[in-house]
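Task card 7
Instruction: Convert sequence to structure tokens.
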Amino acid sequence: MLGKLSGWDDTIVALATPTGIGAIGVIRLSGSDAFRVVNELFPSKDLQAQPSHTLHVGFLKDGDQVLDEVVVALFKGPRSYTGEDVVEVSCHGSPYIQQQVIQSCVSRGARLAKPGEFTQRAFLHGKLDLVQAEAVADLIASNTEASRKAALHNIRGGFSAVLQQLRDRMLQFSALIELELDFAQEDVEFADRSQFFSLINEAERTVQHLLQSFQLGNVIKNGVQVAIIGKPNAGKSTLLNTLLNENRAIVSDIAGTTRDTIEETLNIDGILFRLVDTAGIRQHTSDVIESIGVEKSLEKMRQADVVIYLFDANETSVNELSEVAANMQEQSIQFLLAGNKADKSDETLLEEKFLGFEHITFISAKSEWNVDELKEKLVEMVLHGSVQTEGTVVTNARHQHALQQVASSLSDIHRGLDDKIPGDLLALDIRRCLHYLGEITGEISNEDRLDYIFSKFCIGK
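Output:
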């Protein structure tokens, strides 16, 4: 595949560790001249004569100038991350030193790597398929246990194995049906239609399961935006502070204290929740600033994945809460009702008062009473009881789109088998299905699409 793309025969260099001051910095080179470039800066020994997977300590020198004392790691292709000759230079973590080393490499023929170019070369050399390559970026960006597990599963080839098995079996039948076309005048069938029908049924179940997992995958990868909505002085800022276990928002007894939205993140059971504390919503206010805050609150409510509607359990009427719930349902908003200040009343009486309301939890944000139950309901609502992340979970929107096309193709094949359509028409639907399966793993790709995918990686990976 590499030979089909232009501009992949040079040597690239980049900082592989985060920018800024640290103990060490790692500078990575990949390409046919990687050993030569570093060898010219490393007078201690001839690196080109050293075996692969070895470490060497010495000084880097650019002419008479000593750049730094470093550790050089050698990886000869194809036994390297990219499949090419790779050299990693561990120098001290001064940004100035790192820049000097990179500049010295560039002056000897290397060029600065583009974002994701090391991983892109690993893909082009067959070290990773496209799903695994994208999972590398997901692993780097992972910020919860669930996202780490999902990315690792894909890096290890879990998702790819499911797709490859399906594609291989489809290819077998495709080849037999294509063969039938060569013997169209003989009126023979090489492909067992009953076995093919069973395969299509199984494939449809597999693809639907993967598509259904995207909702969980999107939560795992991107987190969940939760807007805390309610009337002024309902205790929204107090609830935010309690959930975060810190005094993030200003709290007072004065209604309308919160004028703008406050956003913070919270990790609950491995899922990242983006909490938004909003200004209190009331219909009539003469305060211009408060009016702007109310409008922002309504906007955040419409944008949120889940809304926690917080209300004073003692002061709010059943009719008022019914109106709120109906309004949320009308806008197709996922919501939880949280009756605050419930520690001031008998819980049994409150339950009787609001009998018939779903997703309601009585809490005291101030004393932290029953807040853990609210967290549990929040997680349950988002995951819908699905907490299994060890198996294959689709987290990538590109994969989801391709799987939707696969599902459509399988449906057409299924319908064609039912209608006993000719083999040439059936073959067209099978080719389309195989095309989209191959598009996910990168077996079918183009240079522009690859450049776009890898441009979202960090430089040096």
